[in-house]
TrEMBL record:
Family of this protein: Belongs to the phosphohexose mutase family.
A Pfam cross-reference name: PGM_PMM_III
GO biological-process terms attached to the record: glucose metabolic process; purine ribonucleoside salvage
Protein's name in the database: Phosphoglucomutase
Cofactor: Mg(2+)
């Protein structure tokens, strides 16, 4: 009998046979007693999926949520898979850390118990940890894998289970599907223990030594000791109620910089995140308290990490008293420049460096690479792809993994941490601000000078909320198939006409967005990529191009389970629309570029493109997207 055919009350009994947590047991028992089948179906029918991001969901009872049962099951499957695929895995061990969220410590203790029961050495990072400490420790110790219990910047009711492979980077296929299969095959709870990590002989307690090593490795990021010693800049820091404050304080001290001024109401860990709607420095208004504190203290920089300190955000006070909040792409550009001048200060030529960013991030990094000569690649979204790409380039070409970033304020700038790291990113940004201050300029001035050198790139990235998966799929079907799709309305713009022979469907993507012709299309949901559309004899409603299997296939991994389509336009525009793997969002990433003396035109074109995405592609008003 398949999972979908099991009667719901049988799933209730199955759950209760596993669960030893009184709180979650009671939730399921109460729903059973009320015969609330609808809610039981939501919690029990579809197991939480293990993917390249590990696990992440709301904390409550049920196979589809984050709780003690699903954490134990994930740990069982992961431990078995690692033993099958890594030599001497038990002796190499696993690194386990956790943040301050509700249940994080318990989840980490349960994970440790499972790995101990499987014969693993466990490097248990007791107490609160930042996420970057886990990948650093995996690499430092040559461990078999790592687990970090965190939901990063998600709302307070969420938690997650993040997995690193033995190279220190997050897992990618085929490991994700292999682990998921092992989890599925090992559902029965074999151990439920939150105490063994305290006394078991296979537990290694060396957190302080690993923290010391983390900060020692960060010393390689110092640009100019004398400038740091003479620094005049003052800055305010907010931990966003997370775990970053002591780590950010120590890195400033380690590198010889003055201490930050804390946002007192946000600097201590608090799993309820009382002063922010979403504990994410990207969100509009998230830095308001920090800016107010900076105004009061006479500081000119605002620095922020997200709750697990793997992301970094910044704002700078300008001469007119206003605050300029840097976008994720702008910070990426500035930190890439820092990586360049840091290498130059060590006499490392640019052609020995490798830098990557995600495909939804700015192409300004690619422009920098063409000017400066470093190796550049773009990847799918997520540091799992970027970090592994840097590892591949290092292993195959011998280049230094100098920098990686994604527009969602994630930055890798220490090659010893193969994941985003908000602590080292903050330290490098402060040094860059000091570097510019010594020249009588600020970092916004530097950004303007980089636009003059590499081109003016401007973006508009945000999202719509939609909880209806059927509606989301219909929106993307309309973009992909146009009015030829039976459930969709006629279109107001011309479309391509590719007959996809292996599916028997005609792809009818827009030929124009924001008043400019489409020149490039990539669809990573169905597996289609075509360049230089303007040079093909296309593409109106009465002309058809047959596409055979494998023809126009993308270089990136195709994932039918998620939606992602990219367009480029003749006026240097780029649009990517995708669904989120962890949140009910349709995300869009829009960028326009041109020469620095065309700023007004570029801004106008960006506005037209953004309006067209909401109006024409997503039909946001008609579809009631928030």
């Amino acid at each position: 009998m398949s999972e979908s055919q099991i009667p719901i009350m049988d799933l209730v009994e199955k759950w209760l046979s596993y669960d030893k947590d009184p709180k979650t047991r009671k939730q399921i028992e109460d729903l059973r007693d009320k015969n609330d089948v609808e809610q039981l179906e939501k919690l029990l029918r579809n197991p939480i999926e293990f993917g390249t991001a590990g696990l992440r969901s709301t904390m409550e009872a049920g196979f589809s949520r984050m709780n003690n049962v699903t954490v134990i099951q994930a740990s069982q499957g992961l431990a078995i898979y690692v033993k099958k695929n890594i030599d001497s895995a038990e002796n190499k061990g696993v690194v386990i850390g956790h943040d301050h969220r509700h249940n994080s410590e318990t989840f980490a203790q349960l994970a440790a118990a499972v790995f101990l029961s499987q014969g693993f050495k466990v490097y248990y990072l007791g107490g609160l940890s930042i996420t970057p400490l886990v990948p650093f420790s995996v690499k430092k110790l040559a461990a078999a894998c790592g687990v970090m219990v965190t939901a990063s910047h998600n709302p307070k009711d969420d938690n997650g289970y993040k997995v690193y492979w033995d190279n220190g980077a997050q897992i990618i296929p085929p490991h994700d599907t292999g682990i998921a299969q092992c989890i599925k095959e090992n559902q029965t709870i074999t151990i439920w223990d939150t105490e063994s990590y305290k006394t078991h002989s296979n537990v290694v307690n060396m957190k302080e030594e690993l923290i010391d090593a983390y900060f020692e490795s960060a010393k390689s990021l110092v640009l100019d000791k004398q400038s740091i010693a003479d620094m005049k800049i003052n800055y305010v820091y907010t931990a966003m109620h997370g775990v970053g404050a002591p780590y950010c304080s120590r890195i400033l001290q380690t590198l010889g910089m003055k201490p930050y001024i804390p946002v007192e109401s946000q600097v201590e860990p608090d799993p309820d995140f009382p002063t922010v709607s979403f504990p994410n420095p990207e969100e509009k208004g998230a830095l308001d308290m920090a800016k107010a504190a900076a105004d009061k203290a006479g500081a000119t920089l605002v620095l922020a990490s997200d709750p697990d300190a793997d992301r970094f955000a910044a704002a700078e006070k300008q001469a007119d008293g206003s605050w300029y909040v840097f976008s994720g792409d702008q910070l990426g550009t500035l930190l890439a420049y820092y990586a360049l001048i840091l290498a130059k200060s060590k006499d490392i030529p640019a052609d020995k460096l490798a830098m990557v960013n995600s495909t939804v991030s700015s192409r300004m990094l690619e422009s920098m690479a063409k000017h400066e000569g470093f190796r550049y690649e773009d990847t799918l979204t997520g540091f799992k792809w970027m970090s592994n790409e840097l590892v591949n380039i290092r292993n195959n070409e011998g280049l230094i993994p100098a920098f990686a970033y994604e527009e969602a304020i994630g930055y890798l700038i220490n090659p010893e941490v193969l994941d985003k790291d908000g602590v080292t990113a903050m330290a490098c940004f402060v040094q860059l601000a000091v570097h510019m201050d010594n020249k009588g300029l600020n970092t916004k001035d530097l950004l303007e000078s980089l636009y003059s050198k590499y081109g003016y790139f401007v973006s508009d990235n945000y999202y719509y909320i939609c909880y209806d998966n059927d509606k989301i799929n219909a929106i993307f079907d309309r973009i992909r198939y146009g009015s030829s799709h039976p459930s969709l309305q006629a279109d107001l713009f011309p479309r391509t006409n590719f007959f996809y022979t292996d599916s028997g469907k005609t792809l009818r993507y827009p030929m124009e967005i924001g008043g400019s012709p489409v020149t490039y299309i990539r669809d990573l949901t169905i597996g289609f990529e075509v360049e230089q559309l303007d040079s093909l004899t296309l593409a109106s409603n009465n002309q058809q191009i047959n596409v055979s299997p494998g023809q126009y296939y993308p270089k990136f991994l195709v994932s039918p389970e998620s939606q992602m389509i990219t367009f480029e336009t003749a006026n240097n525009g780029r649009v990517t629309i995708r669904t989120s793997g962890t949140e009910p969002k349709i995300k869009y990433y829009i960028e326009m570029n041109g020469s620095n003396d065309e700023k007004n035109l570029v801004q106008e074109n960006l506005k037209a493109l953004a309006e067209s995405v909401g109006r024409d592609l997503l039909e946001a008003t008609k579809n009631e997207l928030v």
